[in-house]
């Protein structure tokens, strides 16, 4: 892996640095990257491939169904979902596998949620035999892929323009309050069945925060949840560049960068990362390992596809919120850094805490984490597991993969045999 990130020319190094800003949000995020583009037109369409070997077209030109699903011979549908606060989100559906069986109401729905600075392509990077979305479809599940606000196909809004700062006035709190509920509501209405959920990295953060809410919007529609490289507590992560980045983000970053949108391909972010790489003890020649830990099982062609889908934008406020999570060691709502503002928003001086011990004890959970993961560190996962210590024993399945790091859980060529087979078996036990 390291050789793929070694570049001799300074300009090339800067490009790799910019591409790998995803790494910072890998600090609470996810890994696979994806370029963003203009919003799609409204409407619903189905795409069915007749020639699986057709050339791959850039996703931003045709959508994820045509670029990454239908080319493999799967039926795929594109939808747009509107949140209560007006954001228009892209969603894909793979209603059936390639062989046998048609889509129908008797199939169990599974919702896949990616992390930050990436989109739903996370679940489609490897071959159909190795990618979780395809594996679930081939095992008889009705697969739905979510894409959070600000990513390339989810940049629409009822009244706001993504080119202007008001559009970016959100953090992961809003993903908990609006994006995830909108996705759940839509899938539930379409299928009339409770939903199985899979999140990776920050996709686990927003899920755990939501599940912990008393009277939460999701629990009544949730059947079970699988959490891969779970992120909730981040105070023990072992990536020095990640820690340095998190410290740099604490403060009023919007003013510092002069922007509300955090664009990984922009000049300001490039300058920020160059400054991080100049710090003593920081190795920017192997950024992937520096951020995620030493991944054991990545395929070179998958990494190449990953790099072609350059990082996507998120809200600068979201970056600050994630950094607060690292700094404070507590899972809480966004801290406005001002008692008056916190009082205005929350009615108290400090942001409310998401109490994970409130996650319903009878909710079936599958948790898989890695011994080499520098972001979802073993010690932090143990803190998470301690918060679930009163969970019903037969409802909590925990898997520890000694050799896996952060990216292995979504890109690893051995993930099927090691993680996905166990995950599929877990979901089938809920039938």
TrEMBL record:
It comes from Papaver atlanticum. It comes from the Eukaryota. GO terms for molecular function: hydrolase activity, acting on ester bonds. The keyword DNA-binding does not apply. The lineage of its organism: Eukaryota, Viridiplantae, Streptophyta, Embryophyta, Tracheophyta. Belongs to the AB hydrolase superfamily. Lipase family. Coiled coil: none annotated. Residues 69-126 form the Partial AB-hydrolase lipase domain. Keywords: Hydrolase, Lipid degradation, Lipid metabolism, Membrane, Transmembrane, Transmembrane helix. This is Lipase. The active site is at residues 201, 373, 406. The keyword Disulfide bond does not apply. One of its GO terms (biological process) is lipid catabolic process. The chain crosses the membrane at residues 13-36.
């Amino acid at each position: 892996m390291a050789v793929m990130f070694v570049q001799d020319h300074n300009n090339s190094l800067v490009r790799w640095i910019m591409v790998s800003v995803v790494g910072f949000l890998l600090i609470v995020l996810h890994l696979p990257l994806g370029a963003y583009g203009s919003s799609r037109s409204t409407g619903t369409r189905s795409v069915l491939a007749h020639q699986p070997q057709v050339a791959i077209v850039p996703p931003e030109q045709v959508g994820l169904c045509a670029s990454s699903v239908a080319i493999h011979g799967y039926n795929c549908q594109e939808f747009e979902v509107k949140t209560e606060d007006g954001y228009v989100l892209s969603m894909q559906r793979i209603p059936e596998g390639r062989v046998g069986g048609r889509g129908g109401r008797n199939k169990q729905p599974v919702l896949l949620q990616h992390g930050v600075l990436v989109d739903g392509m996370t679940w489609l990077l490897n071959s159909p035999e190795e990618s979780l979305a395809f594996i679930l479809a081939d095992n008889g599940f009705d697969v739905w892929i979510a894409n959070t606000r600000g990513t390339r196909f989810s940049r629409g809004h009822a009244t706001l323009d993504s080119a202007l700062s008001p559009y970016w006035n959100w953090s992961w709190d809003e993903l908990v309050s609006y994006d995830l509920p909108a996705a759940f509501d839509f899938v539930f209405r379409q299928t009339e069945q409770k939903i199985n959920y899979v999140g990776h990295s920050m996709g686990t953060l927003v899920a755990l925060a939501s599940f912990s809410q008393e009277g939460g919007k999701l629990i009544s529609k949730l059947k079970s949840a699988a959490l891969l490289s779970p992120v909730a507590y981040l105070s023990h992560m072992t990536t020095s560049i990640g820690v340095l980045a998190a410290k740099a983000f604490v403060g009023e970053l919007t003013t510092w960068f002069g922007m509300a949108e955090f664009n990984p391909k922009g000049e300001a972010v490039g300058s920020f990362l160059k400054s991080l790489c100049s710090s003593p003890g920081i190795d920017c020649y192997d950024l992937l390992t520096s951020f995620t830990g030493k991944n054991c099982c990545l395929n070179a062609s998958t990494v190449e596809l990953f790099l072609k889908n350059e990082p996507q934008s998120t809200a600068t406020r979201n970056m600050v919120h994630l950094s607060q999570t690292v700094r404070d060691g507590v899972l809480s709502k966004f801290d406005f850094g001002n008692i008056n503002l916190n009082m205005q928003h929350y009615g108290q001086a400090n942001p409310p805490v998401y109490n994970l011990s409130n996650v319903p004890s009878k909710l079936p959970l599958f948790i898989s984490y890695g011994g080499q993961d520098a972001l979802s560190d073993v010690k932090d996962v143990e803190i998470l597991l301690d918060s679930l210590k009163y969970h019903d024993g037969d409802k909590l399945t925990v898997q520890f993969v000694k050799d896996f790091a952060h990216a292995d859980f979504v890109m690893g060529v051995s993930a099927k045999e090691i993680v996905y087979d166990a995950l599929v078996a877990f979901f089938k036990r809920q039938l």
